[in-house]
Amino acid sequence: MTTTNPADPDAPRILLTVEAAAERLSISRTRMYALIKTGDVTSVRVGRLRRIPTAALDAFTTQLLTTQHAA
Predict the structure, then answer these.
(1) Contact, 21 vs 32, CB < 8 A?
(2) How many domains does the chain have?
């Protein structure tokens, strides 16, 4: 098991901003908010901030691959 130092700026992020998550999926910020609103991508609130867990992006991508291979 690998442990990461939370103070390490190069450590992988667990939560992303909406903009960073959209960039990671190569979609627009508006489209990301639409996916959050429909529940296709899970998000969390941290105080007043909206964040996307990286695991939610993985789950969304897996769902897309599964549904597109089934069609």
Answers:
(1) yes
(2) 1
